[in-house]
TrEMBL record:
Name this protein carries in UniProt: GAL3B protein
PANTHER family: ES1 PROTEIN HOMOLOG, MITOCHONDRIAL (PTHR10224)
Gene3D superfamilies per the UniProt record, alphabetical: 3.40.50.880
Domain of life (superkingdom): Eukaryota
Family annotation (SUPFAM superfamilies): Class I glutamine amidotransferase-like (SSF52317)
Record organism: Oriolus oriolus
Lineage of source species: Eukaryota, Metazoa, Chordata, Craniata, Vertebrata
């Protein structure tokens, strides 16, 4: 039986939704490993819409489920219908949608709240001892919900290669252990069954990001 993996999206676009390259890499690597991806997204409005040419907010409104369907080629389900009993693992790609639509991390940092629907899903997989894969900014969700967990968002010292390294410090303040890693690596928290990789938290060639996500996917499937 092929392992069934829920992939939770947060819209479509690096600055206001799911990072498209990360989401695509997750789906490609799941396919390569013979797993069946089931794509979900919450049926909620986006926090805002960003014009990705200008890098500025645009005066329009979009829906997270509708936008996520672009990545899923229409094959997507409302997150409200997810049943953890029929699934083997959960993976959440990154992108600012995680910090804007699935949580309020973008505006509140460590003091953020997480969408109740998203938190319930994460807690359900965790309680069922089923693995959760998180990349880029999405490990902040685990840091907020599971105190004492081990995660990586890359490095904790800000520099040109690691422009978002302060995220690691905020996660440490939430009581989790941050493990420095390279973009091609994934960290496994065996106790909590969490697998994390930094992806676009690093200024790296896209093939290195793709390889790191592949490592994360393989480790998730190994635990499933």
């Amino acid at each position: 039986m092929a392992r069934r993996v829920a992939v939770l999206l947060a819209g479509c676009g690096a600055f206001d939704g799911s990072e498209v390259h990360e989401a695509s890499a997750v789906l490609v690597h799941l396919s390569r490993e013979g797993a069946q991806a089931e794509v979900y997204a919450p049926n909620i409005p986006q926090m805002h819409v960003v014009d990705h040419v200008k890098g500025q907010p645009a005066p329009e409104q979009r829906n997270v489920l509708v936008e996520s369907a672009r990545i899923a080629r229409g094959n997507i389900k409302d997150l409200a219908t997810l049943d953890v009993r029929g699934l083997d693992a959960l993976i959440i790609p990154g992108g600012f949608g995680v910090a804007k639509n699935l949580s309020t991390w973008a505006t509140q940092g460590k003091n953020c709240s997480i969408s109740r629907e998203v938190e319930d899903v994460l807690r359900a997989f965790h309680a069922a001892h089923k693995p959760i894969g998180l990349c880029c900014i999405s490990p902040v969700l685990a840091a907020k919900i599971f105190p004492g967990c081990e995660v990586t968002v890359g490095h904790d010292t800000e520099c040109e290669q690691w422009p978002y390294a302060k995220t690691a410090e905020a996660m440490k303040e939430l009581g989790c252990r941050h493990v420095n890693s390279q973009v091609t690596e994934a960290h496994v928290d065996t106790r909590n069954r969490l697998v994390t990789t930094s992806a676009f938290m690093c200024n790296a060639p896209i093939h290195d990001i793709h390889d790191g996500i592949g490592k994360m996917v393989r480790e998730v499937l190994r635990l499933a």
